[in-house]
Structure formats: structure tokens, C-alpha cells
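Quick sanity check, Dipeptidyl-peptidase:
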Amino acid sequence: MMKTTRNYSYGMAAFALIMGWPIFSAWAEEGMWTMDHLPLAELKKQYNFVPSAEWINRVTKASARLARGCSASFVSENGLVMTNHHCANECLQQLSTKQENYFTKGFSAESLSEEKQCPAMELDRLDKITDVTPQVKEATSGKKGREYTQSLNKIKSTLEKECVTGDPIQWRCDVVTLYHGGKFSLYRYKRYQDVRLVMAPDQNIAFFGGDEDNFNFPRYDLDVTFLRAYENGKPAKTEYLPFNANGPKAGDLVFTSGNPGHTSRQNLLSELLFSRNTLIPFVLDYYATLDGALWQYARQGQPQKEEAQEKIFLVQNSLKVYRNFLQTLNDPSFIARKQKEEATLQSWAQNNKTPDLDGDTLWAVMDRSLATEKNIIFPYLMFEKNLGFAGNLYQYANLIVRGKQERFKPDSERLVEWHEARIPEIKALLAAQAPVYKALEKMELALSLTKMRQVLGVDHKMVKVILKGKTPSELADQLVEGTHLEDPQYRLRLWEQGEKALSSSSDPMIALALKIEPYARSLRKEMDDQVMAPQQQVHQQLSGLIFAREGENIYPDATFTQRLSYGTVKGWKENGAEISPFTNFAGLYERAEERPPFELTAAWKAARSRLNLAVPFDFVSTNDIIGGNSGSPVIDREGQVVGLIFDGNLHSIGGDYYFDLQNNRAIAVDTAAIMQSLQKVYNTPKLVDELQKGKR
């Protein structure tokens, strides 16, 4: 999913420090804290609880992330993983056949031999965090523009290469930018590339209420899937979180350990306005058009509906998110507050003789970089981020063509996403035995080519080069019918070929990627050197001043790395009405109808008399979460799993920009609901036994 705001900024917590506001009394449970920098004193003060070193280590190593998005946790010592159904949608759809639709009907393996490997899924488990700020700052000191970009990439490459110790298959290492350049940490992950499907419920209950209920509460979703990590063909031995089938109680202190993807709480006002006025309107228009096209495609028949179902879910979810982003950024009170905070920050910076950059104030440098970004953002999104060339087939072509240029450079000279430590994930994607639906590919590609022509104009030089007098539909048909990139063996052969052989390839999709590559690279260079580099340097300066004045008792913006948040199981008031923190099975059956998206399957209807209808189903808490936290375990004081994050309420979408303790709520499946469903609806005794014992 495309991000519409970038990670270079200043946030509510930092502004609170500058203005002398007491952060924790104002936003008591705010924060997505790195595992090596937890607010232990505040937890002691508020809840008389301090997690032990053993608790922190176990939670760290029993938590995980799906490399392409979402969080997860190990819930048995034999590599059993719990995450959301919607996080496994891609796997479920890829494994489905004409005879068995696992996405819709669900899946359950009775034995290890029946567990099915998810194509191209990678699971990462955090092993170690190392502060590498001194090395990075020394390497980039005094640099700017292209020189800064190259120096930063070089030191990242060196640190990551040393970290994997010659074994990039087993280890993944990422230099992570925190506080937008105020700090750099090296994250080492244990990498699992053999991840298999164990159990998934039917889509009706996993996404009960559909888009109508999405980001709302009360909810009745059993949004859970169980996977298993394998090593050398056998279930991996892992740390795990015990599964507490009793769930939490109202008022309980609970934690989430997950990988929030991105927040913009520390962005300067000018960056937020750029997102509001330029990026988000573009994204909304793009997704709204795609949503309509997918709806039309799905109406053609049941096969088309099944082919498009995962994309429809993602697009509709994204539309709701970005509409609420825009609503937050158009809120006059929010903008006024940011203006006041930033004026105070500027005044303080002037009084403390903040160093300039290139003879300009930090704000002037930021404004200049945003002006450059505005000039190139739409070509950049279309050609470098491939929004003008949608579909899996072009993605494969782009990876093969760019990989041919990047893989044979010294690691320190490669683009950061092509460092040697990242190659196993890319190669696994190319090798994945995943279905390609050519009719859907044609529709998506034609639509994206049409959007490219509309956004850039018919006279844009690259639009003319690409279309060559053809309509978008004509070109899409020619490309999809002429390529063989749907075959993973063919993709791998191209991957291994020399650059000369690739350049002479007769595959039209490869030829298109080769044609686009020089222009896309020029846009990437301009974005890296004239936008990203100065913006990061601005925030490095600002972060350094904050740390010098106030210390580092603030949390960084989200970066899709493991974070711990804490809160309590608690409802909220909506339009004067009290919202209870729990739903139950009785409410599910009261809400059910004989039509989607509130329709229950025959298995759920038949199970009603066997169920304890008073058992909690979903619950809400004050934990600070955002996109990427899906699949995060909800953990109690004892380090046991009591819930599974799958959503937030509508108010929480604004959490990308600020945290509102009164209204923001995380939504989770209760472990009591998971256990009762496995026992009395799906009849999975072996899985139940493994959860209860923590081992097979």
C-alpha cells in the first residue's frame, strides 16, 4: 500500500517538551516505544508495574512481522504463529484453486504434512538492536545532496553486511532511521522464508460486517489466521507467548507488541500541508477509480469476483484511511494547534542559535525541498513507484531489470533496497508459485496507463514514448498477452541472465521496463538528493537540539519496526453514548442477517446451540496503534496473549498525526472468542491442544 506522508518530521511529544508541557500527564498512554527504550519509570508510576528483563526479552523474541506488512506472534514453541486473516489474504488467495477457495471458505490442516507453504511470505523475528548513530553521523558529517545520499547508503551497506555475518538467508539486517535522523539503529532479524498455512476461518466471520463495519465498533470479527515457521523442513523452535484463553477484563493493563508502519506526528506543518494539498487528493482519486474498476470486474462472474477479492479489500480499506487522513488535516483546530506549536519551536530555535543549513534556516531548507518534491512527485509516483504500471507482471519485469543493474555493483554503491541483505526476499518473490490472472492484469495495467496519461498529460515525453499512438487498453493487451512472466521458472532464468542477454529479450514487458528504467532512475536520484537528503538533515538538526535540551524521553515516529505500546481495556463516549469495551457471541447472532456482509456460514448457524453466548468476542483498548499493527498480540502483565489487534476505530485513523486518549481505540479479537470458535465451530482439537500447552 502506498504511503502518502513521509517520515521526516517533528511531533506532538517533541513539541510538548519544547513548550514545557508534561507529555505523560497530557497523553498518559501515548507512544510506540522501541524495545530498547521503554518508558519503565512511567509504567511504574501509573500502574506499579515494571516489566522484567526476561519479560522484555521474551516479548521481543516471541513477536514477529510479515515482511510485506503486518505483525504477528509465536504462540507455541514449535513455530506456531498467530496473525490476522486479512494479513494472510494474499497467501489464502494464492493457495486457492478452482476446487478449493481458502480465502472464502477457510482452511484447516489436521497434520504437519497438510500445512501449505505460503508463496513469497517472509516472517522476521527481531533478534537484536544496536545503536549505530555515531558511525552514521561520522560517515555523513559535512555532506549534502548527492554526497550525503551516497555516504549514507555506503555506511548502511557496510553495517548491514557486517551484521548478517555472511548468511543473508538466515539473517536480515536493516539500518533504521529513528527520530527522522536524530538516531540510527541496526535491527537484526531472524528470517523465516518457509511459512506455512495452518488454519484460517471463513471470510464471512473474519470480515463480518465488511466495509460497513470497518474502523467501527461494536465489532464481531474473528480476524485470525494461524501459520507456522519452518527451518530445514521442520517446525522452527521458537520463544513464544502463552495463550490465555480467558482474555482480558475491563480496566486491565495490556500491551501491544507490533510493527506500526508509519506515523507523521513529528512532521513539520509544511510537510503536512504538502500531504493534504498534493499527495492525499491524488491517492484518493487513484484508489476511487481503481475501486470502481474492480467492482465492475468482479461483477463479470464468480471467478472474477474471487480473483479481485483481495484487491477490493485493500482498496476499500485504503480509501477509508485516506479520507480520514484528509479530514484530520482539514480540521482547523488541529492546524491551529500545529501552527502554534511550530511558532514556539521556531522561536526557541532562534533563541538557541540553531545552526543553519547552506546559509538558510531549517524551515527555508524544508520549504525548498518541498518545492522540488512538488515538481517531480507525480512522474516519480508513476514511473519510479510504478503507479503508472499496475499489476504483478510489470512488478516482476521491473525487479528483473533493476536487479540486473544493481546486483553487480559493489554493495555500498547500490540503492538501499538492493543491498545484499535484501536479495533473498526479492528472489523469493520472483520464485513464488503464485497465480497470475491475465484478465485482471490487463484491466489494472490499462487503468494505470490511463491515469498516467491523465495526470502527466498526453504531451509528456514519456507518455508518448510508452503509448506510441496506442490506447492504454491496446498496449495493456499487447503486453500481457506477449509476456511469459507469469511463469516463475522463466522469471528466474531472466534473473540469472547477463545484462546483454536481457537487453535483447523479446519479452514485451521486459522491453517496457528497460525503456522506463533510465527515466525512473533520474527521478529517483533527484528525489533522493534534492528532497530526502535535505529533509533528513533538517530533522537531524532539530532532533539534536531536542535531545540536548530535554534528553531522549520521547518515542520516535513509526518505522515498521517492533514497538511496544501500553493501555487499558476501556470503552469511550460517542455522541454522548457510552461504548462498552466488549462485544459477545450473543451480539454476533443478533447482528447477523441472511445477506452479506452480515451473513454467517452454515457452520456458524449450526454451532449456535453449542456456544456460550456470553463469551466476549471483540474488545477495545487505549493502546496507541496504527496501520502495520494488524496482527499484533495483546499481552497482559504476565506476558500472556489475551487478544489480537485487527483494527482501530475511526478516531484512531487520525493517530497518524496525533494521539487522542479520549477517543482513539485499538480493536482486538478476544482470545476467549478464538478458543471457543476453534473448539465448537471449527473442531480443531490439535490446534487447541497446541495453544493450551504451548507445544505440539
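Posting the structure with no commentary besides this: The chain has 27 helices and 21 strands.
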